[in-house]
Each structure stands twice: as C-alpha cells, then as structure tokens.
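Subgroup meeting minutes
Present: P.N., E.W., G.H.
Scribe: E.W.

1. P.N. recapped why we're keeping a running log of single-chain structure predictions: easier to compare across weeks, and new members can see raw inputs and outputs side by side.
2. G.H. added today's entry (221 aa).
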Amino acid sequence: MTILATEPLHELSIAEAGRALRSGAITSVALTSHALSRIAALDPLLNAFVLVTRERAMADAERADGELQAGIDKGPLHGIPYALKDIYATAGIRTTCHSKLLIDHVPTEDCVVEAKLRAGGAVLLGKLATHEFAFGGPSFDLPFPPARNPWNRDCFTGGSSSGSGAAVAAALTRVAMGSDTGGSIRGPAFFCGIVGLKPTYGLVSRRGCFHCPTRSTIAAR
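Output recorded in log:
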C-alpha cells in the first residue's frame, strides 16, 4: 500500500494504518504525533479528553516502531493510537471516573482491557470524558466539562461514553474504548455518527473497570 504525502493520517482506517506500518510507509511515531497535534488543536473545543498521556504515547510509539522493524508483530493494533474512557484503571496514570471523589486516584495496576492493549503494542493517547461513574447524564459541576458533539457543539454526544464518541468522530483517535450497560457506547456511536460495538457478555474481562456492570466495548470511525 502506498500512502500519499498529502493524505491526512487521521483519515486512515485501522486496517490501512496497520498495513502501512508493516510496509514501512509510515511510522507509529508519525501517527501518534499527528494524533497528538489534532488533540491539541481541536480538543479545547470538544473536551473529549480529561488527560492526554503525551510522554507515554510517544514512548509506546517508539517501542512499536522498533518492534515492527525487528519483525515482531503483536497483532492488529500494534503501533495504533487509542484512548480509554476514564473508568478503565491504568497503572501509574490518573483514573477519575470523571468525579471529584477520585480526582487524585492513581491505580497501581492496569485493568484487563488496558493490559491486553499494552501487550498488543497499541499506543495510549490518554483518558476520555464520561458521565460521573458512567451513570446519569452530563453535568457542569464535575471536575471536567462534558464532552461536546464534534458535528455540532450545541448537541448531545450521548452517554456515558461521551468522550469516546466525540474523540473518534473528530478523528482525534481511530479507536476508543467505552463501556455499555444500557446503551452507553451505542448511544454515542449513534449521536456522533460512528461505529460502536458491544461485544458478547463475558468475552472480555471487566476486572479493573470501575463501573462494574459494564462491558468492554470499542468504537471505531
């Protein structure tokens, strides 16, 4: 596959980016730097992210490039940037559930989903807005503002995976993890015009995901 220099990296699908990474047409560092630049430029208008893990992202990307160049292929998300709804525990990285109650909470170990993504060589861009403890609706008295719909900032993103929906729809990331008990990924996918997947119950462990009844899910543009 040939990637044209004028083709925006954020328009590549996950599959296209994966093929380009393996052919050497692009690097994970380039993909990640581009994503971080879009986040810096657009997220002040959208509030999709509550935390951007810039240093971790660049370290992940450099590691992924080295592994792929050495012929080590960890799977389809190797070198691909992603982001996590801020109810997924991340070792050494603040996990707040978008609540003042956990504003200083830093887990000591990863949830199962994050451990699998890290083992698969994916690149963590940061943590995404949600409704407080993935419950209820948007509120303006929480420690972070509610995520805005990128198609119209006066419109609702759906919830509770609001930041996941907004981030993918705005192409700040190609893939984001959310959670779904009663529509919390399917709603933002519908409202933001993206694809939302609620996998079979029990397919992925919920261990370390704060809103216990939820199921691990993925949103892709």
